[in-house]
User: Fold these one by one.
Assistant:
Number 1:
Amino acid sequence: MQSAIEPNPLAETNGRYEKVQNLGQGSFGFVQLGRSNNSELYAIKFLKRGAINKYVEAEILNHSKLRHPHVIQFKEVFLTSEYICISMEYATGGSLFHYVQKQGRLKEAVARWFFQQLIIGADYCHKRGVANRDIKLENTLLQVVKGLPLPLLKICDFGYSKADTMSVAKSKVGTLTYMAPEVLVNRDGKYDGKVADIWSCGVMLYVMLYGRYPFDSPPGANVPKAAEILQMLDKMVGMRYTIPEGVEVSPEGRDLLQRMLLPDPASRIQLEQIMVHPWFTTNLPPEAATMNDSYLRAPFPPGHQQPDEIRQLLEGAKQHTAANASVPMANVMTAPPEDDGYDASIENAIREDLLTHGKSSGNMQLQHFINAHSGNMQIS
Ligand SMILES: Nc1ncnc2c1ncn2[C@@H]1O[C@H](COP(=O)(O)OP(=O)(O)OP(=O)(O)O)[C@@H](O)[C@H]1O
C-alpha cells in the first residue's frame, strides 16, 4: 500500500507509467521502479523542477546521447507538476559496490570481467564526447542476464546535478576517494575529464582487487577539512597506496594499476593503451575489441528524444513551478535565468584552504604538483 509520505509522481502520467516500488534515494532526488504502459520496467529518477541548473541539463543531454550495452540506457525525460523525471533501463543486480562489499574482494578473473566492460563503456562515452566525472563502484550497476555466469556492468549516473567536482566533495566524502589529484586542486575546471575518468577507473580496479581504497578518504565530517584532503593528496602525488598483505595480484594487474594511478595526468595511461594491455586483453572476447566502432555508427531508434526537444522541456520546467506547470511549452520559452542556483562558495573556500595548506606544507613534490595543476602559477 502507498504510504502517505511516499510521493507517487507517476500517478500524474495518465497511465503512461505506474509506480511499482521505490528503488532508493540519492543526494539530489529519488529513484522509483515504474512499469510503462507496454509493461516494461524502467528505473525513473525524480529531481525537483527547481533543482534544474546548467549542470543537470548538461548531464541529462549527455546521457541521452549514449546508446551502449555497458551504459544504462536512457529512455526519455518527462515532467510532472513537481519533478523532472528521467526514465532509464532498470538494472536488476544492484550496484557493483554492493557486489564487491558482499565478496570482500574479487578474484582477478572476476574483476577483469567487470573492468573490461567498464573500460569499453567508458571508451564509448569518451568517443561520444562524454566524460562521466563521477565513476565509482556505486555508479556502476549490474544487469543479471540469463545464461551468463556473471552480471553485465552498466555505467550509470552521469552526475545529475553534481557535475561540479567540489560539489561532489561537499555532498559525499566517499566520492573523494575516486577523485583524480588534478581535479582536487584545480581551480578553474580546466582539467581533462576523460583523463580524470581513467584515474577513477583505476581506483575501481584497485577496490575490486584489494577490497579497500588505495588512498584513505578523510574521516568523519560531511564537509572534509582541507588539511585532511591534503593528506590524501600527498599520498596520491607520492604514489603511496597501500598493498594489503596476503592479497596476490599478478604483475600485469599491478602494472596496469600503477599506470592508471599516475598522479601526472599527462603520463597516465590512456584508454587505447589500457585496451591493449596484457591484463586487459586476457580472456577478452575478440568481438569486444571492436564493438565500439559499431555502436558509434549505429543510428538512434525512431522516436528517440532529440537534444532540442530535451532542452525545450527543461527550459519549460525551469521557468514554471507546480502552480503553472500546465502552461503549454511553446508559451514558456524565454531566456534562461542568469543564476543557476549553484552556490560554489563552500567548495571554493575548501579549495583555497587546500592550496594554501599545500603551499606552506614544505613538501616540494606536493607544491610542485599544486603549482602545475591548480591553474594559479603564482603559488610557489
Ligand atoms: N537504472 C537503475 N536501475 C536500478 N536501480 C537504480 C537505477 N538508477 C539508480 N538506481 C538505484 O536508486 C538509488 C538512488 O540512486 P541515485 O542515483 O539517485 O543516488 P545515488 O547514486 O545512490 O546517490 P547520489 O545521488 O548521492 O550519488 C541507488 O540505490 C541506485 O542503485
Number 2:
Amino acid sequence: MPNYYALIPAAGYGARMGNQLPKQYLTLAGHPMIYHATRTFCESPQIKRVFIVLSPQDPEWKKYDWDVFSDKLSVFYCGGETRAESVFNGLNTAAGHFAIESSDWILVHDAARPLLTQHQLSQLIDELADDAIGGLLAVPVADTLKRSGADARILQTESREHLWQAQTPQMFRYAMLLEALNNVPELSITDDASAIEAMGHHPRLVHNKSDNFKITYPQDLALAELIMQQRNQQ
Ligand SMILES: Nc1ccn([C@@H]2O[C@H](COP(=O)(O)OP(=O)(O)OP(=O)(O)O)[C@@H](O)[C@H]2O)c(=O)n1
Ligand SMILES: C[C@](O)(CO)[C@H](O)COP(=O)(O)O
C-alpha cells in the first residue's frame, strides 16, 4: 500500500498581501497562518509525514513552538525562487531523509490555504487513491467571464463551461511529480498539475467548495478570520 505524504511550500513572500511579514506568518485565529494547514495534515490519520518547505533565510518559523506536531513534522530550509522550485527542492530533500517509494502519494498544499478541512482532505485522498495519474481539489467557475484588452474594455465573453479554479492539495505519485517538475523549463508554472499536464497526462478534478480559498490579498485574510470564528462556534 502506498504511503501519503504532505508537502507544504511556504517559501513565498506574499507580495500581493503587501505586508512586511510573509503572509504564511500573519496571525489567523490566534496562530500564524501556516499553523492551520500544518495541523490539518498532522491530525489526519491518512498522512504519514508532513514536509514544510521554508526559505533558506526564514527567520520566523523558529519563533513558534511546533512541538505538538513533532511526531509527523519535518522542516526543510530549501525553498526556491518560485513555488514550483520550492516543491521540487522539497521533494528532493525529503527523499534524502525518508524512504519515499516511487508510487507513494505526495499531497502538495499551499501554506496560504488555511481553511482546508479534514473532510475535504479525506475526500480527495479517497477519490484519487486508485487513480492512475492523481489530481486536485477544484471549484467550477461560478461567475460570467470577460476577456479584455490591456485597456480593461471587453473583447469577448468567455464560456465558463468546463472551467475550474484549481485549489490544493494537489496529489500525485512521488516519481511522476518529481519527473514532471524536472521537465518544466525554469519551473515557471503556478501549480503542480501544470507540470503533470505538460507530460501529456490529464489529472482529475475533485469537486470542492470555495471555502478552501487561497489567502492572496488582505481582504482574504479578513474573510478567513470570519469563517474560522464561525467554524469554532459550531
Ligand atoms: N518561491 C515560492 C513562492 C511561493 N511559495 C508558496 O506557494 C504557496 C502559494 O503561493 P502564493 O499564494 O503565490 O504565495 P506568494 O508567492 O507568497 O504570494 P505572492 O505571489 O503574492 O508573492 C504559498 O504557500 C507560498 O509560500 C513557495 O513555497 N516558494
Ligand atoms: C496551486 C495554487 O493554489 C493554484 O491556485 C497556486 O498557489 C496558485 O498560485 P497563484 O500564483 O496565486 O496563481
